[in-house]
Specification:
The complex is a heterodimer of chains A (about 350) and B (about 350). By secondary structure, chain A is an alpha/beta fold. Chain A has twelve helices and twelve strands. Chain B has two domains: about 1-230, P-loop containing nucleotide triphosphate hydrolases (Rossmann fold); about 245-345, no CATH class. Chain B has an eight-stranded mixed sheet with strand order 6-7-8-3-9-10-12-11, sandwiched between helices. A four-stranded antiparallel sheet of chain B has the order 2-1-4-5. A two-stranded antiparallel sheet of chain B has the order 13-14. Classes of the chains: A alpha/beta (about 350), B alpha/beta (about 350). At the A-B interface, α8, α9, α10 and α11 of A face α5, α6, α7, α8 and α9 of B.
Chain lengths: ~350, ~350
């Protein structure tokens, strides 16, 4: 069995603002093994980025605070570490790449300086050695003419190349875990395909675990081994990628899949959107955040958050609809008719 | 007869530099493109950032002045229209923008935003205009009570509905939708797509749908034009384009789109294009795609191929490539000899720089 890298249990991260408490992440649990890719999907405000930032302990405090839960990195309790120790963990053990590579690179320093800085900070390397490694890393992530490119500034790089440089920086210290927050959202599809390719290659080479945060269910289908679906700060469904796409149990997951136009279907089909608007995070009900938009609401939904229910191997859901009734309801939805044989 | 006819449209933006702001070059944003749209049809314009799709939309509406070419709307020459004619044309041709946050004036109430086109064109009395605004709000799935609110009180999807209502106010016949759903979340995006489909059916609207998301474009369009560096490289009926792409760029673009189906994803072969899109200020000589093209040969470096029918005669499917993919008895082939249709005409004349 693959080595367990990360175990997050009952994580809650709240933001204490003047307008009230925003429960950005509310009792979320997940794990990540070596060589595994976990996709966290959800719409804006679902808490997927805050969940990842919490693992890195990068939540701005105030107003944010991890109020509950445990974060275990290969048996070490991340919440018990001092700030200095945590700084060692970032970069060495967990690295992160962000959506917009232009704002995460410093425009006044050469690409090489920025990668070399990360190397010198975490490894016992001199400046020349670090620069040499930086060029080598750029080459490894597929930047042509890396020896000269390493001396350039971020503005001289295209969007795709900047994201490659970010990946080079992230893998410079050979981290166990790579967190990628919407790494391809700002990029064109052909460049996105290149970046996904590089990320995959790096994962095989470095045997790292990857957490991919995205709203794109296509990208998740392409590279994730398992998927966590978030809504309003909660995990509504969590399981192996095939289970989530072919045997989804939560009405929100149904809605997401029904909302997607499909390139591979010849027949013109009508989309089935989720009705209503995204929830106001200040006014979330004590129960399921999806109430109000869910077409199958039951009496307890608004009041109480349902327990985790195991519906398959490694596949869990939080929903008040009884299991058999759920499958029956799903079978009646146009998008799922052909799947339930 | 087609409602909109675009012939040889060009838009070159001058690059000025030095203290005297002399023109030192041009960005060839849109370079000699032609297409036509029938009434009630949706034409999708797809391509990556900087390919000129938005510039095309704006030049068609004369929101920016084109460098050359002609645009004819229902028999009227848009480029030559006087101020008065232009104002009338604007009633018929409207636009919906990508960013619902930036395209609505934050200081105005929704009633004013949607009613403004009616005011400008002096339509109806004040009471009638008010009633119309209410009707429009309901048409796009909002309600009359929203009229007194400000844009910040709405979510992204609702704002885009307001943008749609504003575009509909003058009962246009053509709407240019410039990435109208790109900034929206998946579940909201589907709502707006369905709304656009319903409105088209009810009002017989004609759309130019500009987007970089190929799945969305396929879903909505009857015909699709694929753009690359200011040129249309392939244009076809939507299904034909997706089933039988002929241009190597279209093939790569389609294969790069991830499909939300894990099984399909595992069995797919992805064509990964090398490198980045070149700068439109300095487009490559010959075919604009040749530096990234896996099929490029010498002829591709000398002339830009012309759009021509390469597949079955009579197909509404044109491609600008010397080595287009052909499908014979369902088998995919690429010929070694350059396709003759691509080299006819004056397409290989160098672009004219105009100030």
């Amino acid at each position: 069995m693959a080595e367990r890298l990360l175990e997050v249990t009952d994580l809650s991260t709240h933001f204490f603002t003047h307008a009230g408490v925003v429960k950005a992440v509310n009792g979320v649990s997940f794990t990540l093994d070596r060589q595994e890719t976990l996709g966290i999907v959800g719409e804006s405000g679902s808490g997927k980025t805050v969940a990842a930032l919490s693992v890195m302990r990068l939540i701005p405090d105030p107003p944010g605070k991890i109020v509950e839960g445990s974060l275990m990195l290969r048996g070490r309790d991340l919440r018990a570490l001092s700030d200095d120790e945590m700084r060692q963990v970032r970069g060495n053990d967990i690295a992160m790449i962000f959506q917009d590579p232009m704002t995460s690179l410093n425009p006044v320093f050469k690409i090489g300086d920025q990668i070399a800085e990360a190397i010198m900070l975490h490894q016992d390397k001199g400046k020349d050695e670090a620069w040499r490694l930086a060029a080598e890393l750029l080459e490894r992530v597929g930047i042509p003419d890396a020896k000269n490119r390493v001396k350039q500034y971020p503005f001289e790089f295209s969007g795709g190349m900047r994201q490659r440089a970010m990946i080079a920086m992230a893998i410079s210290c050979n981290p166990d875990i790579l967190i990628a927050d919407e790494p391809t959202t700002a990029l064109d599809v052909t460049i996105q395909a290149q970046i996904i390719d590089v990320m995959r290659e790096m994962q095989t080479q470095y045997h790292s675990g990857v957490i991919l945060i995205t709203h794109d269910l296509g990208v998740v289908a392409e590279i994730a081994d398992k998927v966590m679906v978030m809504y309003g700060g909660r995990t509504v469904e969590y399981g192996p990628v095939d289970e989530i796409y072919y045997n989804p149990h939560h009405p929100y997951t149904w809605g997401l899949l029904g909302s997607l136009p499909r390139l591979d279907l010849a027949e013109k089909h009508r989309l089935e959107p989720i009705k209503g608007q995204p929830p106001d995070l200040l006014l979330l009900p004590p129960g399921c955040p999806f109430v109000g938009r869910c077409a199958f609401e039951l009496p307890p939904c608004r009041e109480r958050w349902p327990e985790h229910e195991e519906v398959g191997p490694g596949h869990g859901v939080h929903c008040w609809i009884p299991n058999d009734q759920r499958l029956e309801t799903r079978a009646g939805l146009p998008r799922f008719k052909e799947w339930v044989a | 007869m087609s409602l909109l006819e675009v012939r040889g449209l060009k838009k070159y933006f001058p690059i000025k530099s030095g203290v005297l702001k002399r023109t030192t070059g041009h960005v060839y944003a849109v370079d000699d493109i032609s297409f036509s749209i029938d009434k009630g049809e949706t034409l999708g314009l797809v391509g990556e950032s900087g390919c000129g799709k938005s510039t095309t939309g704006r030049a068609v509406l004369r929101l920016i002045q084109a460098t050359g070419g002609s645009v004819t709307f229902d028999g009227t020459d848009v480029m030559a229209a006087s101020r008065g004619e232009m104002q009338r044309l604007r009633r018929d041709m409207q636009i919906i923008f990508q960013d619902p946050y930036a395209s609505l004036n934050p200081r105005k109430r929704v009633r004013h935003i949607i009613g403004e086109p009616l005011d400008i064109h002096g339509i109806g009395t004040e009471a009638e205009r008010k009633r119309q605004v209410f009707e429009l709000l309901e048409t796009v799935g909002l309600s009359a009570e929203h009229a007194e609110r400000y844009p910040h009180e709405f979510s992204g999807g609702q704002r885009q509905r307001i943008g749609v209502a504003r575009a509909l106010a003058l009962h246009p016949r053509l709407i240019i939708c410039d990435e109208p759903v790109s900034a929206l979340d998946v579940s909201i995006r589907a709502q707006i797509i369905n709304l656009l489909e319903d409105l088209q059916e009810e009002m017989g609207l004609t759309y130019v749908f500009i987007a970089h998301d190929l799945s969305v474009v396929k879903h909505l369009s009857d015909r699709v034009a694929v753009m690359y560096l200011g040129k249309i490289v392939e244009i076809s009926d939507s299904n034909l384009l997706y089933d039988r792409p002929q241009h190597p760029y279209t093939e790569a673009l389609l294969s790069a789109v991830p499909i939300p189906d894990p099984e399909t994803e595992r069995s797919r072969r992805r064509i990964i294009l090398e490198g980045d899109v070149p700068s439109p200020a300095n487009p490559p000589k010959g075919c604009v795609f040749h530096p990234r093209c896996p099929r490029a040969q010498e002829v591709c470096t000398t002339a830009m191929p012309r759009l021509a029918v390469s597949g079955e005669a009579g197909d509404r499917h044109e491609v600008a490539c010397f080595f287009p993919t052909r499908y014979e008895d369902g088998k995919r082939t690429v010929s070694d000899t350059p396709f003759e249709g691509a080299s006819l005409g004056a397409a290989d004349a160098p672009p004219i720089g105009e100030d």
